[in-house]
Amino acid sequence: MVVEELARRFPQLCVRPAQDAEEAYVRAVTKGIVPDPCDLSHFGGSDADWLRTEHTPAGEVEVLFLARREDFETFLRCTTRRCRPEAIPTTIGAMTLDGLVDWECVRAYRALCALRWDEGGKEEFAAFVADRSQYRVTLVLLSEGPYSALGAEHTPYDEQTWLRVSREIRLYHELAHVTCRRLMPNDKPPVWDELTADAHGLLRATGAYDLSLALRFLGIQDGRYAGGRLQEYLCEEQREHMDAIVAQVLDACAHIDRFLAGARQEDSYDLLLALKRDSALTY
Predict the structure, then answer these.
(1) Sequence-ordered strand ranges (E) for the chain
(2) I need a surface site. Which of 68, 78, 227, 230 has the fewest CB within 10 A?
(3) What distance in Å separates the CA atoms of residue 112 and residue 116, rounded to the nearest whole number?
(4) Which residue, 59, 61, 54, 72, is CA-closest to 17?
């Protein structure tokens, strides 16, 4: 099971989410203490699960796919909810987990330094611990399901094909966020961020930018907002002016459509970064 491999690095995965589990979570995260025994029965596992490394212009990124929705939600509770049994919104189908402590890495480096602890090993380990980038990792977590909760009947694909395409859109959407946040950390207009990440996902997954699908992802149909993701990226005041916001988003998506006309999949990251610099929205 893929989760077994990860539990050696992230011991909080061994803590079954429960009302009284937070203390064990804190010990696992801050001290690397693995519950004894390490029981992972709260994960069902699937042969379809995978863990792999993706290459981006901003460096390598680990990606974990969990086929069972229950496992995806349990993983999020163990890593983002302090092992509390909180509900995970069904609208969340992927998440980038930043700053996870890789305790397997810490233990291995400490063991190496311990061999010469009195000859500089202690100071070397202290320097290692002080540099968080040495042992904190970014993990992109993906689930199965139709992208943006959009049924296959609203796409050009049959149901099984749409699930496969959704997985790829979700993957490259998240990798777009990781890339842009690493290379352009001060550029964070949320709506434009989502539009460009969707564009990157569509280009990599399907070979082209589908304007009609991009709008449906946000909940825009026939030029009007019909309920969907768009409102999640707006403040309360902006939501009171949805017609005006939708008009601007329509123009921005049309701009992306023109920009990506004839684009090649292999140029997707270059095009993504160019789009981010050529912002059509400031929010």
Answers:
(1) 50-56, 59-66, 94-101, 136-143, 220-221, 224-225
(2) 227
(3) 8
(4) 72
Closest CA to 92 of 50, 142, 157: 142
Mean pLDDT across 40-66: 96
Mean pLDDT of 74-100: 94
Q: For the whole model, what pTM was predicted?
A: 0.92
Query: How far apart (Å, rounded) are the C-alpha atoms in residues 63 and 140?
Result: 5
* SS3 call for 50: strand
Q: Which residues of 31-68 are buried (b: 16+ CB within 10 A; e: fewer)?
A: ebebbeeeebebbebeeebeeeeeebebeebbbbbbbb
CA 223/CA 240 separation, integer angstroms: 17
pLDDT tens-digit map of 224-269: 999 989 999 999 999 999 999 999 999 999 999 999 999 999 999 9
Q: Tokens 């309360």 — which residue? A: 236
Radius of gyration in angstroms for the set of CA atoms belonging to the chain, rounded to a whole number: 21
